[in-house]
Amino acid sequence: MPSVDALPHPFTFDPAETALLVIDMQRDFLLPGGFGESLGNDVSQLSRTIEPLSALLAAWRSYGLPVIHTREGHLPDLSDCPPAKLRKGGIGEQGAFGRILVRGEYGHDIVDELAPLEDEVVIDKPGKGAFYATELSEVIEKLGAKKLVVTGVTTEVCVHTTVREANDRGFDCLVLSDCVGSYFPEFQRVGLEMIAAQGAIFGWVADSPTLIAALQ
Ligand code: C5J
């Protein structure tokens, strides 16, 4: 069974029972001119994940292993938007790439470099966590996955929420430091430390070249 040199200790996994989760790699979070940048964020902190994630996807797919993508967003009438999120503003308003975080809009979709393949699952999620109000549990069960490799953005928001949800549901998560990103370098550092602290309280942390090497 492959073992990845990870923090706080090696992460052992059966590839046949492991799914790769790619969280919210959407244009509106990652591209210059999008929603994220309009909030004053430095999107280069997120877009640096595209290249390693592309390489990881190529390797993962070459072994025929399952990939699950998520997109954060809402129905056009925003009826599925959690009220507190709606009250903050922004969601559903017109942005440079269409209505912000509304399904079907250009900005809501995944960046070209990481476009899902036809047979890969794409989960549309209204919340931060990928398990909340989605079919993710059923998808994972159908795939027979017991462990998750977690990537995407942003580290301290949707990645963290999803890893915590996954942990409570019994899944061991390996989070890849170079394939997750935060607009805030300090949150990136501390967010990763929090995952692996206290003997893997929420999960394990490694980088993608280490995982790719373990697959070979
Ligand atoms: C945020 C996300 N940060 N995908 N979404 O609002 O982390």
Structure notes:
The chain has 216 residues and is α/β, with parallel strands linked by helices. Helices cover 35% and strands 21% of the residues. It has a 6-stranded parallel beta sheet, with helices on both faces. Strands 1-2 form a two-stranded antiparallel sheet. The protein is globular, with a radius of gyration of 16 Å. The site of dicarbonimidic diamide has 7 residues, from α7.
List keywords for this structure.
216 residues, alpha/beta, six-stranded parallel β-sheet, 9 helices, 35% helix, binds dicarbonimidic diamide
Quick overview of this protein structure:
The protein is an alpha/beta fold.
How are the SSEs ordered, and which strands pair?
Elements: E1 3-4, E2 11-12, E3 18-23, H1 27-30, H2 35-38, H3 44-47, H4 50-62, E4 67-72, H5 83-87, E5 94-95, E6 98-99, E7 121-125, H6 136-143, E8 147-153, H7 155-168, E9 172-181, H8 185-200, E10 204-206, H9 208-215
Parallel strand pairs: 3-4, 3-8, 4-7, 8-9, 9-10
Antiparallel strand pairs: 1-2, 5-6
